Automatic annotation (TrEMBL):
Pfam families: YjgF_endoribonc. This is Endoribonuclease L-PSP. Residues 6-140 form the Endoribonuclease L-PSP/chorismate mutase-like domain. It comes from Roseovarius halotolerans. InterPro entries: Endoribo_LPSP/chorism_mut-like, RutC-like_sf. The lineage of its organism: Bacteria, Pseudomonadati, Pseudomonadota, Alphaproteobacteria, Rhodobacterales. PANTHER family: ENDORIBONUCLEASE L-PSP_CHORISMATE MUTASE-LIKE DOMAIN-CONTAINING PROTEIN, ENDORIBONUCLEASE-RELATED. Signal peptide: none annotated. Gene3D superfamilies: RutC-like (3.30.1330.40).
Amino acid sequence: MGNFEEKLANLGVTLPDAPAPAANYVPYVQVGDMLYVSGQISKDGDRLITGKLGDDMDTPAGAEAAKVCAIALLAQVKAACGGDLDRLKRVVKLTGFVNSTADFSEQPQVINGASDFLGEALGETGKHARAAVSAASLPFGVAVEIDGVFQIG
C-alpha cells in the first residue's frame, strides 16, 4: 500500500473501484501530466445521496456528500494511474455543484467537505483552487457533484 492509501486507511477510508460513467463520456482524460476527471456524484456504494440544500438537506449533510464525491475523484485518479495513487502530484482544481434552493448561500461550506478531506488525506498535495456553485438540480437528484483537475507523474 502506498503512502496516500495508508493515510486514507488511517482516516478509515478505502477507495472503492472507480465508478463507471453514467452516460456517453469517459471518466477521465489525461493530457500530458494533467488529469481531468469527470464529475463524480454523491453516491456511496449503491446509495445515491439525494437532497436539495436549503430544503430537505442541511449543510453538514451536504458536506458529507461532498466528501463522498472527493473519495470517488481519488478512485478515478488511482485508476488513471494504473492503481498507484502515489503518482498523484497535486490536486489542482475542483468545481463543486450543489443542488440547492435559490436562497441557499452556503455552497462553499458544502464543498468544504471535499476540500477539508483532501487536505487531511493528502496534505500539501491536496491543496487546490476551486469553485462552489449552486445548481437548480443535479443528475438523479443527487445533492452534490464535483469534477477535478489533477497533476500526476
